[in-house]
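Recall from the previous chapter that SMILES is a line notation for molecules. Here it describes zinc ion.
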Amino acid sequence: MKVKVAKKGKAFVEVVLEDVNASIANALRRVMLSEVPCLSIEDVTFLENTSSLYDEIIAHRLGLVPIRTDLKLFNFRDKCACGGAGCASCTLKLTLEKEGPCTVYSHDMKPEDPKLKPQEGIPILRLGNGQKIAIEAEAILGTGKTNAKWQSAIVSYKYRDGEGAKAKGDNRSFILRIEGNGALKPEEIFTKACEILEAKATEMASLL
Ligand SMILES: [Zn+2]
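With both inputs in hand, we obtain:
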C-alpha cells in the first residue's frame, strides 16, 4: 500500500491510498471512527449549580466537548496501574467556575495540564444575574465504539478516479478524507488507526 497526502487543512487531511482494495480502505475508516482513543469527560462533580439547567444536562453537554489529547500521556483507566481508581496516568482533571450574567463556554474549563485544552468557543449554558456554577470534571480515554463522545473524526473514502474506475476494474486507488474534531490531529488519527489495524492483523496471524 502506498500513502500520499493529497490535501491538508487545519482540521482535515485527504490521503491517497494506492495499491489496496476497498476492504483495507474501509477497515481503516472503521478503525478511525470506533477504535482510535481520545479524551472525553466521563465524571462530573457539581459543587454548586444555581443555573436553570439540571446537573445531568450540563454533564451531558460537557461530555461532548472535544479535549486535546496526547495519547503518549494516558492509559485506558480500566487497564491502568491504579486499577481503575483514577490517577494522573489515566485521568485529566478539569475545573469550571463561573458567575452570571454570562455565557459559559467550553474554554472556561481549566484543565490540570494547560496543554490539554478543551475545544474553544462551544457554548454550554447561560447564567442569569447572580447564578453560579462550580464543577470538577474528570476526562478519560475511550473509543467511539463505547460512546460517540469518544469519536475523534468523521472519515469517508471514495474511488480516486470516480465510480467509473470501479466499473473499469481500476479500483485499487482511493481518497480517504479525515476530519478531526480537535482532540487529535487528522494525521495522528490516521497513524494510530494504521497501528491498531496492524496489531489486529498480527494477532489474527498468530491465532491462525
Ligand atoms: Zn490510573
